Amino acid sequence: MKIYTTTGDQGETSLFGGRRVPKDALRIEAYGTVDELNSALGVARAWKPAKEIDEILGGLQNDLFVLGADLATPAEKQNGIVERIQREHITHIERIIDTIETRLKPLSSFIVPGGSHVAAQLHLARTICRRAERFVVRLSREERIEPSCVVFLNRLSDLLFVLARYANQLDGVDETPWVARRK
Fold first, then answer.
1. Can you give the pLDDT at residue 44?
2. How open is the CA angle 44-49-55, to the nearest 5 degrees?
3. Measured over all CA atoms, what is the biggest interatomic distance in the chain, rounded to whole angstroms?
4. What is the pTM of this model?
5. What is the 3-state secondary structure (H, E, C) of 116-164?
6. Distance (Å, rounded) from C-alpha 103 to C-alpha 96?
7. What pLDDT is attached to residue 115?
8. HSE of 88 in the Cβ direction (CA atoms, 13 Å)?
9. How confident is the model at residue 18 (pLDDT cuts 50, 70, 90)?
10. Tell me: the pLDDT tens digits for 99-155?
């Protein structure tokens, strides 16, 4: 199978189901940013995080493929082939957050993103996740999408924050509290 098809050379691409849309359409921005997020998680995994974190990230990468396919498939194309983001995906993330949070010190201030290589990459992934969420929220106002997609991204950004903190803890790196500059 060839990697190039030439079908997008005029600035359009196909959604699942065949409909052609401009490559800068909001739906494409949404699932393209989900793809970017998935790649950012791949970079975090390349830094060789603790096994527990790596396994969580691997599962999230698979879930992001589900989310990308969900967003690439218009709601009217309910054909049973494309898996959709469901409440179970969100519940799974919430369980992980609840487990990891019990191992962390409670926050008493905002923290500056950074720390170990893994934690810094997870903070970056969190911000990409928030951008994806903004695109999906905008898309949901213009087209019918599965409401769980927005909730999933909202929880995922929370999980990435918690995982970044946990990665720093496991690597013995102190978090940097944000301190407001007084004039």
1. 98
2. 90
3. 62
4. 0.90
5. CHHHHHHHHHHHHHHHHHHHHHHHHHHCCCCCHHHHHHHHHHHHHHHHH
6. 11
7. 96
8. 4
9. low
10. 999 999 999 899 999 999 999 999 999 999 999 999 999 999 999 998 999 999 999
Superfamily of domain covering 21-172: Cobalamin adenosyltransferase-like (1.20.1200.10)
Which residue bears the tokens 């691409």? 13
Residue 16 has pLDDT above 80, yes or no: no
Task: List the structure tokens of 71.
Answer: 């967003």
According to DSSP, the β-strands at 20-22 and 12-14 are antiparallel
Distance CA 168, CA 165 (A): 5
Contact by Cβ (8 Å): 16, 60 = no
The length of the chain, given as a count of residues: 183
Cα dihedral angle (115, 55, 159, 89), rounded to 10 degrees? 170
Beta bridge partners of 80: none
Distances (CA, A) of 152 to 8, 115, 179: 30, 26, 31
The alpha carbons of the chain give a radius of gyration, in whole angstroms, of 18
Of residues 92 and 2, more confidently modeled: 92
Are the beta carbons of 17 and 27 closer than 8 angstroms? no
